[in-house]
Fold this protein.
Amino acid sequence: MKHMNNPFSFSLFVKHWKDLSASELGAFVKGVGFDGIELPIRTGFQVEPDNAARTLPALASELAGQGLRIFSVAASTEESVFAACAEAGVPLIRIMIGIDPDGYKATEERAKRMLEQLVPLCEKYRVKVGVQQHYGKYIIDSNGIMRLMEDISPDHVGVVWDAAHDAFAGQQPEYGLDIVWSHLAMVNLKNGFFVRSNGPEAATAEWKRHFTTGRHGMAHWPRIAGYVKERQYGGVICLTAEYTDLDNKDRYIAEDLAYAKSLFNEQPFPSIEQI
């Protein structure tokens, strides 16, 4: 974590801009006002798993020429990905834990062992793994993620705390952040709310998630900003650009970044002791 006397770094998860060239991507990200990106390493994106050793450092170099960094990648945890990140100066690999068919507890135990087995790679390449919660068939909340962190050093494995997914799980942001604080590696900002997906005449109500802009969902961005500033976090804030209406994503992400900067660049809220 940085301290409060250093600026926050604002990152954009560029999943929805995969068709841009490296120079186009950099121009867009810089033009909106971000400091860098989170990059998916996936087939069909600017960097693919099979060529990451070559293309990730090349992309990092090109973005650096525009004053931008690759703060993290969304990728698998093969050693080749660690090596590519180390070469490119990328400090974090973000992953999520999907629940396998044999159930939650069995998945949890396997995930703990998997993370323990990644520690030597984290040490060797000086690249951290960050585990994020996610709604649905994943480990969904802060409590669940922190069960994986038992006996694992935050120097090697941390938590990417996601505002929207903790809100969908019913968690208050101050509590969720407090739960993961010892291992907090990055803050993800997105927002959403539940909408009913069938009519009132249905025998059983069904609900779906609608992803919206930062001001309008269940995750309260001002409370999040106030809490992390009070506790002197000053690291990466990643806006994930998750919108149900993707046609207007360029406008939404510009508005959301301006909103986030207005919150995180304000003076921190006074603590109880200061009042």
